[in-house]
Hints:
Number of domains: 1
Strand order of the largest sheet: 2-5-1-6
Largest sheet: 4 strands, antiparallel
Number of strands: 6
CATH class: Alpha Beta
Helix content: 10-25%
Distance between the termini: 11 Å
Oligomer: single chain
Low-confidence stretches: none
Structural class: alpha+beta
CATH architecture: 2-Layer Sandwich
Mean pLDDT: 89
Strand content: 25-35%
Number of helices: 3
Shape: elongated
Amino acid sequence: MKLVIAIVQPHKLEDVKQELYAANVNLITVSEVLGHGRQVGVDEYYRGVKETGNLLRKVRLEIAVNEDFVEPTIKAIIKGARTGKIGDGKIFVVDLPRCIRIRTGEEGSKAIG
Length: 113
């Protein structure tokens, strides 16, 4: 089991969701987050004065998947989120040692679905 964590631009969320659904990945958690990568914020002008913001709005997706869904999940996120410009985001894949479905008490790959 793996936990796929993706940080993407908010305006790409619907595209990413559609690509995930097309890949038969339906169980996701979405959070609004703030952060920055290499771009270290954006330059904005307020009344003619340049100001640099240091945190940008992003969306964090967390998707628990069984081993055979890891690559399809990654490919779907990339397809939905990529613009080709800086700030497209990141994907992290981490081991998920244990998963428990609260309602039934099922564990492991059965709990993921």
